[in-house]
Amino acid sequence: MASGLRFPEGPIALEDGTLLVVEMERGTLTRIAANGTTAVVAQLGGGPNGAAIGPDGACYVCNNGGLKWHTEESGAMRPVMQSDDYVGGSIQRVDLRSGTVSALYGLGTGGTLKGPNDIVFDEFGGFYFTDMGKARRLDIDRSAVYYARIDGSLLKEVVFPMMTANGIGLSADGRKLYVAETLPARLWEFDVVGPGEICPDPWPSPNGGRLLYGSDRYQLFDSIAVERDGNICVATLINGGITVVSPGGQLIDFVALDDKYTTNLCFGGVDHRTAFVTLSMTGRIIGLDWPRQGLPTHFTA
After folding, report:
1. Average per-residue pLDDT in the chain?
2. Helix (H) / strand (E) containing 179
3. Residue 265 three-state SS
4. Of 124, 99, 130, whose CA–CA distance to 10 is shortest?
5. In angstroms, rounded to a whole number, what is the distance separating the alpha carbons of residues 23 and 51?
6. Which of 42, 70, 80, 254 is the most buried (most CB within 10 A)?
7. Domain ranges within the chain, ordered by starting residue
8. For the chain, first and last CA: distance in Å?
9. Is the pTM of this model over 0.70?
10. Is the pLDDT of residue 223 over 80?
């Protein structure tokens, strides 16, 4: 679909056939036309990560605040740790018509966010997001899941603690919340009982969730997209590709791809049977004919 991007993430398929992605290293929200040309929608700064369209048609972006980068001899890039100029994470709102950017949470708006990463809206117009935290040379933050409203009236912790919480998604009926942890390569399931409310499992669950799937090999888990029939698709790093897990916790498919940082995917196209996937180290986004129908998001633009 496009190449030459600076670590693309957070893909969104729009109704007009274009795509939105963030470019994390470049600090932008970028639109990709059907012919592959790109145009910057907004300058976000920091480290834009996951993104989603809200009920007002605006784009909401998890900004991790900035990372250091390592560039391979081939030119491929990957993030390594907290940047030297990091000042905190935020949730940003982007008006897609004007390109105006405002900080909804974080960066002086109330509430301390370390490294917001991925986001999903529920049917009520609120959103869940992961705060992965930041890694430094000698220490790493513990992670959390939050729920928030777009009017700035609510930011609440829903799940704590997690280890490098990253991808987040909801089941079709909204009763299950899925969260992927990067470093342990684990997929967790939480029972949702109301907007921003979960019914936690008791101890010895470390966070109120149930372990749905854990990897038996060295790989890392990133962002999530959910299929209409309930399967959870997890973008997978190192062993680059898409891991597909059933609602019952069985590994049912793995789609191998040629980038060790296969970071994110979304569904679009006719009947949501195209998976748009970010291949971030090599700066590409591709479209794949998907064997099953993806779950539409609650809101679009």
Report:
1. 97
2. strand 176-181
3. strand
4. 130
5. 11
6. 42
7. 49-289
8. 20
9. yes
10. yes
